[in-house]
Predict the 3D structure of the following.
Amino acid sequence: MAKKADPSPVEFEVLSILWRKGHGTIKEIQAALAPKRPLARTTVNTVMSRMANKGYVDVREKNSAFEFRPLIERESVTRSKLSNLVDRVLEGSIAPLAAYIVENRELTMDQIRMLEEIVRSESNRESGR
């Protein structure tokens, strides 16, 4: 398994497909990528080979085709990407990210309640120290 889950944008798109479907062949991945990112079969093959070398996917031969399965979890990749965003772009401050979410996204009441619960839980944890 990969130690640091920081896939490139195309690798993240491929992982999203695999997380959703559970597995996929080069042909299936290429077809799923096509609407947003049409890539040649050889390019998809290269991407998948690199992802296997990085430990992001497992590859097995099945019915004379290679089948890929994700080895890293969406949550670990999401945490890594968000951590990089906060550390590199926002210089450690989460306030701009929180403000962006509240001001630029149409949040449902369930999402607002979830955010309030996260803040309340963290606040309780902090005061309990």
Observations:
- The two ends are 34 Å apart (CA to CA).
- Helices lie at 9-21, 26-33, 41-54, 74-89, 95-104, 109-127.
- The chain has six helices and three strands.
